[in-house]
């Protein structure tokens, strides 16, 4: 082999090696680009999912906050409505009490007092009963005692078949306050048992019994 032929073969080998190196480098570059793109897409997808998750969490929190705010507003409106209703019912009670406080000045008060005493005696069925009233009503109550005892005996004789003799007296040592609208309290068994038949207590009882009906009339369902 002459020098020219040897030089040609060496050149061919060099070109072959260069081509192999070039192809290998291209293969490495392509593989690297593919891996880079895959990693890039993976990172983008992860970031995308994180953003979606964050926005979804924010959306859920917003919806929850809106529900909480709406519920709070509804509760506040309900409380305001109930308070308004309660204020209206209370104003009716006060108006009724103001009107009833004028009853002691009317002629029918004596008849009412007798009825209240008799009702209390029927509930107590005791032979010694004290009547507690306002100072300004003491004279009327004292005047009503005899008739109240008579009516009580008649009712018991008719309904039970036995007449009850009751010792009845006004408790002058302990009077109802002037702030009371009127009526009486009956006490027995050394003041251990008490029946309240004041106008205030009867009005309160009436309101408790009829408050649902009153609310239905005033406010509906």
TrEMBL record:
Cellular component annotations (GO), alphabetically ordered: proton-transporting two-sector ATPase complex, catalytic domain
InterPro entries: ATPase_E_C, ATPase_V1_Esu
Keywords: Ion transport, Transport
GO molecular function: proton-transporting ATPase activity, rotational mechanism
Domain of life, source organism: Eukaryota
Family per similarity comment: Belongs to the V-ATPase E subunit family.
Record PANTHER family: ATPASE H+-TRANSPORTING V1 SUBUNIT E1A-RELATED
Protein name: V-type proton ATPase subunit E
Organism classification: Eukaryota, Sar, Rhizaria, Endomyxa, Phytomyxea
